[in-house]
Amino acid sequence: MPLGARRVGVALALMSTMVFTAPASADEYCQDTAHPVASVLVIHGGGWYGGSAAYGRGVCSPLAAMGYRVRLLEYPLRTVPGSIQYARDAAEEEARRGRPVYAMGVSAGGSIAEYLAVKPYIDGAVAVAPLSDFVNWRPPSPRFWDGLGMTLEMRYRYSPYNNFDAPAPLRIIHSPDDQLVPYEQSVRMASRCGQACELVTLKLGLGHASLGARGPALQWFAQRVSDPSYATSAPVLSRASLRPRSFAVDPAFALRATGRRSPKRGARFDYTLSKRSRVTLTIRRRPTAVQRRSCPGKPRSSDRVARPTPRRRVQTITVQGTTGKNSAHFPGIVGSRALRPGCYTATLLATNPSGRHSQPQVLRFKVLK
Q1: Buried residues in 237-263 as b, exposed as e (16+ CB within 10 A)
Q2: Distance between CA atoms of 287 and 199, rounded to whole angstroms?
Q3: pTM check: above 0.85
Q4: pLDDT tens for residues 104-154?
Q5: Cα–Cα distance between 36 and 271 in angstroms, integer?
Q6: What residue numbers bound the domain in which 271 lies?
Q7: Taking the CB of the first residue and of the last residue of the chain, which one, N or C, has fewer CB atoms within 10 A?
């Protein structure tokens, strides 16, 4: 490892100890109740060169006392993609317990927490002194990114600032006195994120260590506990429509490589959600005997419970829906396969982190030759 990169890693690890405390070798857990309201991933700092899960023990007990299941991540060092994938896998594992998943990170851990929130792979996060823009940041050592194997393209790909999808609630806590990660990065991040993000500016800060960050961070989690209705109530999916209801498969994917202009084909799904939820679109081909009737026609009650047969292949698409109106182009292609001409039903179902789901909305459409 280059000497300059090693020195930066050690310096960042030492700074992280001012917020957290001493080393471990695997994820650690703590919870005070058998039925936690949500899970919190605590992600340590250290610039991807140092740090350990044990640095999060200082916030473990307070969060557990609020009713959270806390998981201190021991993510792999010296790899930015590996650390993000590790945190994402942990979030998916916690989500399978049927509860919301949040993250709290400091420095490099804050960057990982931000990335998970803006994609979004989690239901919200708190990031303390995070590095938001990997591209437009001047590290203390010119070999910092080389030591992590991060090319310019990779820095863009894994930078939270360049990966907005449908951001979950995010609180960014930063001090204007930070000389390592400029405070202006968090200002730009919050501005681009919009209403989903808030920036808490620390009046008392000691450089990158960000003294005073613990209070605003724990306050954010306390507010989530005081109003848990966002997670326990089922989402409402309404105003679902597909236009046009008869269309040909969009050939744009095949023609894009040739540069030729493709005709406007495919359709558009529109729907409205009462809260951010995972939306599953299940597509079933209707039997030939049914196709002799009016197609697309009006959905029947049997469409909701029809079981797949060799002629009724089931295909699913899952997307992350946001609160309010949602719209998505449907080219008539699922995965890498185009739908064959014929009649189909599409069932939309929204599911929240707790596993409660909306009433299914069934639409019928026809794929033309």
Answers
A1: beebebeeeebbbbbbeeeeeeeeeee
A2: 55
A3: no
A4: 999 999 999 999 999 888 889 999 999 999 999 999 888 999 999 999 999
A5: 32
A6: 237-368
A7: C
Query: Tokens 């990114």 identify what position?
Result: 145
Q: Determine the angle formed by the axes of helices 57-65 and 214-226, rounding to 10 degrees.
A: 20
Q: Looking up tokens 């994938």, which residue turns up?
A: 85
Per-residue pLDDT of 60-90, as tens digits, reads: 999 999 999 999 999 999 999 999 999 999 9
Cβ neighbors of 96 (< 8 A, separation 6 or more) are: none
Is residue 8 within 8 A of residue 46, CB to CB? The reply is: no
User: In whole angstroms, how far apart are CA 4 and each of 8, 131, 141, 142, 146?
Assistant: 6, 19, 6, 8, 10
> Is the Cβ–Cβ distance between 49 and 8 less than 8 Å?
yes
- Contact criterion met (CB below 8 Å) for 56 and 42: yes
* CA nearest to 282, candidates 348, 363, 358: 348
Domain containing residue 133: CATH number: 3.40.50.1820
324 in the same domain as 198: no
**Chain position carrying tokens 């409402």:** 236
Closest C-alpha to 48, from 174, 153, 150: 150
What's the CATH number where 322 sits? 2.60.40.2550
In contact, 143 and 1? CB cutoff 8 Å = no
The answer to whether the CB of 166 falls within 8 A of the CB of 24 is no
Q: How far apart are the first and last CA of the chain?
A: 59
Select from 199, 202, 181 the least CA-distant residue to 189. Answer: 199
